[in-house]
Write a structure and sequence with these properties.
17 helices, Rossmann fold nucleotide-binding protein Smf possibly involved in DNA uptake, Rossmann fold, WH-like_DNA-bd_sf, nine-stranded mixed beta sheet, 3 domains, 12 strands, DprA_WH, alpha/beta, three-stranded antiparallel beta sheet, single chain, DrpA_SLOG, Arc Repressor Mutant, subunit A
């Protein structure tokens, strides 16, 4: 059994990222050998500062003391340290070209073995996008998939909540250490994920702050643990497209929700569909595709919109509102309502998630 301190220390080495770790693994060098062997294979070339840190660890210096401290903190906090040589390490994640050699887990580590679907999208999602993410996650979780996302605002949070409301575990992959919650407003959601039988997962040790470059890097874990990725809403340069690209490079399925051509948050999804992502209009589309691969998912499930209240969907005002933007004045000409009453009804429908008010224009989202 390898010493967890060796793995912790290996992740703290300077100039030692996941790609370098992957090359070491390819050369047959495990963490214990890296941290203790006097002579590494000739194919392994390390930088002087990396070698200095390794010698510091061997001599019981600051790096060794830091590794001991972090190991003790994990034990005290009830966190699981999952190394890449552990039987519990996710098989799919191990297959990517630069898997993290160590995962820090708060919650049930067994959920990492469940078939997972990544649900990602914009942090600044529309009301309709949030609703779609929630309902897709609700149905997909009920269909047998663990929902994996990044705990961010917007689509991520909605996906986690949908899975929780389905009574199923969900996984949040962090760009920080387990002792940090980013955004801080999602601390209650993070606790709900753990209490709901899910897990918070990160490759970063405690004390790691929410630095910008950590989040694109963690996206490979979100897609890497998942059999597929669903993008709900994404602008052309959205970070969620990084996750989708990682999924494509990893040979995983990518799904995208189409939207209005006038909605900038649909452009990223439309671009993915042009590149070969599968268009998803309902959760059945996804479960049918993935169920054929796994043979273990519950089919069929309801369309995300099936549980809408019939009275709302048959609302005569809602029927008059197109999915493309319509000016308030033009809509007022169509319906037999005073302007003040129309504004009141539009605000009601917006609060219920059926449309968005954009200045003088109205856009139906459901």
């Amino acid at each position: 059994m390898s010493d967890p301190k060796d793995w912790i220390a290996a992740t703290l080495l300077p100039r030692m990222g996941p790609a370098t770790m992957a090359r070491l693994r390819s050369a047959g060098v495990a963490a214990s050998e890296l941290m203790h062997s006097e002579q590494l294979p000739g194919t392994v070339q390390l930088r002087p500062e990396t070698l200095d840190a390794i010698h510091n660890y061997r001599s019981g210096g600051a790096l060794y003391r830091r590794a001991c401290e972090l190991e003790q903190r994990a034990a005290h906090s009830g966190w699981t340290l999952l190394t890449i040589d552990s039987p519990q390490y996710p098989d799919l994640l191990k297959q990517i070209h630069d898997p993290p050699i160590l995962l820090w887990i708060h919650g049930d580590p067994d959920v990492l073995a469940l078939p997972q679907l990544a649900v990602v999208g914009s942090r600044h999602a529309s009301a309709g996008g949030v609703d779609h993410a929630y309902r897709f996650a609700l149905d997909l979780a009920a269909g047998g998939l663990a929902i994996t996302s990044g705990l961010a605002r917007g689509i991520d949070a909605a996906a986690h909540k949908g899975a929780l409301d389905a009574g199923r575990p969900t996984l949040a992959v962090l760009g920080t250490g387990l002792d940090r919650c980013y955004p801080a407003a999602h601390r209650a959601l993070a606790e709900a994920i753990v209490q709901g039988g899910g897990a918070l997962v990160t490759e970063y040790p405690p004390g790691t702050a929410p630095v910008a470059h950590n989040f694109p890097r963690r996206n490979r874990i979100i897609s890497g643990m998942s059999i597929g990725t669903l993008v709900v809403e994404a602008a052309p340069r959205s970070g969620s497209l990084i996750t989708a690209r990682e999924a494509l490079e990893q040979g995983r399925e990518v799904f995208a929700l189409p939207g209005s051509i006038h909605n900038p948050l649909s452009k990223g999804c439309h671009s993915l569909i042009k590149q070969g992502a599968k268009l998803a209009e309902s959760s059945d589309d996804i479960l049918s595709e993935l169920g054929a691969l796994l043979g273990c998912l519950a089919l069929p499930v309801s369309n995300p919109d099936d549980d809408r209240r019939p009275n709302d969907l048959q609302d005569p005002l809602l029927e008059q509102i197109p999915f493309d933007p319509i000016a308030f004045d033009l809509l007022a000409d169509r319906v037999d309502l005073p302007a003040a009453k129309l504004q009141q009804e539009l605000m009601r429908l917006e609060l219920e998630g059926y449309l968005e008010l954009r200045g003088a224009f109205i856009l139906r989202t459901v």
